[in-house]
């Protein structure tokens, strides 16, 4: 139990979200007893990710390159910009097959109680991105939770002040409330997401 | 989402026990967004543990050195040998303060359904350890589960054939059933463990 490398490993595993001391022990024992190759692979994957994964300059999602694959794809509709909270939410929208525009990934949502404000979410970067002269519509694909609603409200207020291509205001929409209230977007089934995209208002 | 280093990291995290694809995503996003230092630390801890953590030659627990601290401690009673399933179980016994002898850590328990037999648990090594001419009593501190009961039965059968210091058979005991049946030892409260140690039969 008291070997220092094992104790250090358990302590390091506890920094993972949702992992307490018992889970960390189990993980460490499992890796050392049954899956040292998995442990080495995880060590390498962590080091490589820390070294190489940065944020896309345009949409802020994780990317190995300055511009992510989606932003660099000329076949995507530059007139639509979909704002999501996380890369997992973006992936869920992509799997729904209902959207062909561009994205902006907030990497979180406004949460005054946790001290997450507009600066932490890169709202200024979103304003610049939405005002590029090509974007006509911004779709707020945020969770229908209290924090998601606050985020949507703040963003739509700010976005409506931005001018679109013809000097007209940006159109700001939100996913239709076909998405069950109180749920996290990434857990919603794909047909519901596709439906909510069509019904956006 | 589709950056290759991120995908590799998520895949590597999924090899941790109890971690599905959603948890792995959350862990990866959390580390890359909020705790890159924690990610680097975990990478180093994993690599160091894989390189340095071996098994103690005498008791089989994890150890950075050939002999673990407990086995190397001359103040421990060499006449008692306590057999546990995991280092976590050993730690629980130590915290109960009711035991001052030596240990043997099986690193598992017999589980025919999972293909874990006597060879996987190093039962031969336990027989050699118990027959060192100093051990008089072997205490089987195994979980009171079906698998723990099978393990205890098989081990006590084998251990009773081994001679103690005076040519007399080893005394083989098991923790008293003060431990709630069906429970994992590491989750039992300490006073119950201490009580069960006194009442061993
Ligand atoms: Zn991008
Ligand atoms: Zn030892």
Largest sheet of chain A: 4 strands, parallel
Q: What is the percent of helical residues of chain A?
A: 40-55%
Strand content of chain A: 5-15%
> Biggest interface, which chains?
A-B, 60 and 60 residues
Whole-Å distance between the termini of chain A?
58 Å
User: What are the distinct ligands in this entry?
Assistant: zinc ion
| Alpha plus pi helix count of chain A | 7
Strand order of the largest sheet of chain A: 4-3-5-6
Please state the average pLDDT score of chain A.
89
Q: State the assembly state of the protein chains.
A: homodimer
Radius of gyration of chain A in whole Å, from Cα?
Answer: 20 Å
Shape of chain A: elongated
Structural class of chain A: alpha/beta
Say how many strands of chain A there are.
6
- Uncertain stretches of 5 or more adjacent residues of chain A: none
Strand-and-helix sequence of chain A, N→C? HHHEEEHEHEHEH
GO molecular function (chains A, B): DNA binding; zinc ion binding
Protein name (chains A, B): Recombination protein RecR
Family (chains A, B): Belongs to the RecR family.
Function (chains A, B): May play a role in DNA repair. It seems to be involved in an RecBC-independent recombinational process of DNA repair. It may act with RecF and RecO.
